[in-house]
Amino acid sequence: MPLADKSIGSRIFNVINYSLLILISIITIVPFMYIVAVSFATPEEVAKGGLMLFPTKFTLGAYQYIFSTETMIRSVMVSIGVTVVGTLINLVLTSFMAYPLARPNLRGRSAVLFMVLFTMLFSGGMIPTYFVVKAFGMINSYWSLIIPTAISAFNLIVLKNFFQQIPEGLEESAKIDGCHDLGILFRIVLPLSMPAMATFGLFYAVSHWNTYFNAVMYINDSEKWPVQIVLRQIVLLSQDMIGDSTAQAEPMEYLPQTIRMASIVVATIPIVIVYPFLQKYFAKGVMLGSVKG
Amino acid sequence: MDQQYAAQASLGMEKRRIRSQFVKDILRDRWMYFLLLPGVLYFVIFKYLPMAGLVMAFQDYKPHLGLLESPWVGLKHFERFFSEPQFWMLFRNTLLLAVYNLVFFFPLPIVLALMLNEVRKEMFKRFVQTIVYLPHFVSWVVAVGIFYVLFTTEGGVVNEFIARLGMEKIPFLLSEEWFRTMIVSQSIWKEAGWGTIIFLAALSGVDLQLYEAARMDGAGRWRQLWHITLPAIRSTIVILFILRLGSFLDTGFEHIFLMLNSMNREVGEVFDTYVYLKGLTQAQYSYSAAVGMFKSLVGLLLVVGANRLAKKMGEEGVY
User: Dihedral through CA B166, CA B172, CA B178, CA B183, nearest 10?
Assistant: First the structure.
């Protein structure tokens, strides 16, 4: 970073810079705080209007209402399931493919790499992809949210580059000790790559939890909808779709604002929980191992 | 004669040797290929089969007939698309959003990274970073949802405030004139912070001695910024600019899809949302595949072109 001096100009520069950064932080975080505050507020207080950042009277009413309905619980369960299974499959397939590609003397390596890179430049697009997914009988199946996004080309390339940085000597000595390729992957390469695997796992998990449009395309059965679609119904279409007969609380008391906000919070909480872990890693630059791919 | 024969024989032996070496390598790495197989299958099935499926753009594809039986119609769908008045609407909407993003969004992560780079208090820097990275990780549904509850005319904070000032409420979400502003500001709110990470990484590699030397020569902070910091991230800027141009037509499909409604379709409909509308909701499969193919091809041309341009300008390029 540039060096400071004690001149007046430099001080003014600092004051302006720090103030702007604080302002930017406020603009970023205030919408979140508002949403959280309203979700815990009483309807009377919300009706007063204004930018409320802390409710004076604290209530869990909106959450009780949301979780008294089957729709929200079911969709959260679907999303958790898809996220867990999907992330495991992502990690297994990505690391299995990245490891051979990290071997410089593997025959056909550059052909496969080209095949992967080309998909980052050109794609068949929505309609043909839809028909491929359909041909495999995955419409209305949770697999449609997992298999078609099993490997991200970008993550694959970055992980391959990460594997390449592991000193060759380690693998060589394992080979001399009679370890074959699979053994080297499981006993040496993967254990050494745990930070990278954790990072990719978190990134994959976030994208599964946030998956929305694939579910719009592939899942027609509303009982199988993940949380993001349900959230959209509640917030953007103002549909009281969670006000089904399973609701026990009185719906009118909390609709629409607090319920909407509480739904947003529910769909965001898992992200906020994993965020500190994510942050620990992306500062270390694992994701930046390859800017260029 | 003999010599020629011998040469041929040795050439044949050479070939055989190469081939046996090839077989040997393959056998040696058999477990490697075993590991590679699921991934290759994934790319073939979910990336290359759809590319092959693009032939449906030249057919009147009927799902019950399949790709092999559906009748061929040549360029019919492309001709229809180019002569349709919607083509120019989509073209204009996509182009305008892309240009707005390039002008208003693209410079912001650079500026923000430079600002963060000037901060000397590590705690403060990390605090700001923690906050501005966060929106990147929430879904577009959540991001649009947050804007929605803030900007709606029915009890949204922003419009309440406008009303309290004695002005008329503004239908931010349901009007044509506010659509692009909303889209660009949402993109900025969600992604500008995260966009800094790549520039900050490039900046962390700058040799501190450079600054020291510059200060010895009497350079103030602006001069240091201009002559040391900016040149350090120049190639990163170029690379990201190329990538941006390459995805020029990807205006953020999910984002726009969520913001579209019957009131703003005229300015909000872009190629991707049109493909969805025609293809999956109206079952005009071949026509929408043709539209999608046009978009993908233009995208490919843009990346290749931008990359070539960068190389001509003496930069490294993306590939």
Answer: 140
The residue type of B29 is D
Q: What is the pLDDT of residues B205-245, one digit of tens each?
A: 788 888 888 888 888 888 888 888 888 888 888 888 877 87
Task: For residue B148, give both structure tokens.
Answer: 């929605």
What is the rounded distance in angstroms from the CA atom of residue B108 to the CA atom of residue A26? 17
User: Longest C-alpha distance within chain B, in Å?
Assistant: 105
CATH topology of domain A61-293: MetI-like fold (1.10.3720)
User: Which residues lie closer than 8 Å to B142 by C-beta, 6 or more apart?
Assistant: A210, A228, A231, A264, A267, A268
List the single residue in A with minimal CA-CA distance to B285: A127
Contact, A126 vs B292, CB < 8 A?
A: yes
How many interface pairs between A and B have CB atoms less than 8 angstroms apart?
287
Q: Kindly list the residues from chain B whose CB atom is less than 8 angstroms away from the CB atom of residue A275.
A: 134, 137
Contact B36 A236 (CB under 8 A): no
Amino acid at B286: S
Predicted structure pTM score: 0.88
Which two structure tokens, joined as six digits, stand for A215? 């579910």
Q: What is the ipTM of this complex?
A: 0.88
CB-CB: which of A14, A28, A212 is closest to B193?
Answer: A28
Q: Where are the domains of chain A?
A: 1-59, 61-293
